[in-house]
Amino acid sequence: MSTRSFRYIGVVTILAAASLVASCSSDVKGPEAPLSTAGGGDHPEWNQLTFTIGDNGGDGSEELAKVTGAFDNAPYKVKFARFDYGPPLVQAAASGDIDLGSVGDVPPITGAAKQFGFKVVGVQRGADDTKAAENIIVPKDSPVQSLADLKGKKIAVPQGSSAHGLALLALKSVGLSPKDAELVYLSPAAGATAFNTGKVDAWSIWNPQSAVAVADGARIIAKGLPPIDQVNNYYVAGDKSLTDPTRRAALTDVLTRVARIFTWAQQHPDDYAKAVAKETGVSLEDAKATVESFPFKITQVLPEDVKSEQALSDAFSEAGEIPIKVDFTTVTDNILPDGFDSSKLS
């Protein structure tokens, strides 16, 4: 899924169809919920805190929190705010409207270039370099057979998103620049309309949108895989929570519980797919394809991540896609303990 994404429109956009719902004990199944006893210790100083988690494109996190009961015994309240894609989520983190959220590899770069006040605090580390969470696709009857054939073509991309990065790097891999093709900046919903009505020649987009289009006959001409693309997503948090010692400590507990949620979800893929389908409205089959496309674990930000993000940032800068160069070392602030690996959580 790539939880990946963002069209930069200067204001925070929360999907109108999504609700901001507190994830409290009244919302979950009860004592049978599998993670309801996952503890974070007794912290009475956290009792007055509320954290809002940004749900990027319907990644299943809100529904999974209810199913697992992961926040049942948390000494704070949790809400969810759903976003269509990543850049508005980064902006919301910077403004303090949310406290934590996951995005693809590009929104932290474009957000840093806008000098927003946020940090990358953790990684959804792709566990399988053969599975792509996003692709560049063309209609089934398109004459485009390879990336080189995109010269002079219109490519729909959500601006500032990981799919934007995929398009940029994919063109570069065959000696093309954004000037050799026309990047048409469209939100995921508008991109789907343009693709389905033939107003663009290709679409760089993540799952479930890619999976839905492929099921309808679209062809993949480039996958978001190394060496063209990386397979990580990133957790971002706002300076408001990171600079307050009490909120920062509690936020570490929030992210640890989120990690436990997704570890359980990947061990129960049918439940995971049902959660994604419920949040996005896609079919269960398409939700299963989304879940299968991106196995991951949650870890700290590692030096190799900073190196990959810096290279991607430099590519955006060289292409004139961001206004200033970004030093990615200034954008990271690990809050998880050293050696943290969600795949080892019970």
UniProtKB/TrEMBL annotation:
It is found in: Periplasm. SUPFAM superfamilies: Periplasmic binding protein-like II. Residues 1-22 form the signal peptide. It comes from the Bacteria. Its main location: periplasm. The keyword Transcription does not apply. SMART domains: PBPb. InterPro entries: ABC_SsuA_sub-bd (IPR010067), Solute-binding_3/MltF_N (IPR001638), SsuA/THI5 (IPR015168). Residues 50-265 form the Solute-binding protein family 3/N-terminal domain. Keywords: Signal, Transport. The keyword Methyltransferase does not apply. Belongs to the bacterial solute-binding protein SsuA/TauA family. This is Aliphatic sulfonate ABC transporter substrate-binding protein. It comes from Mycolicibacterium komossense.
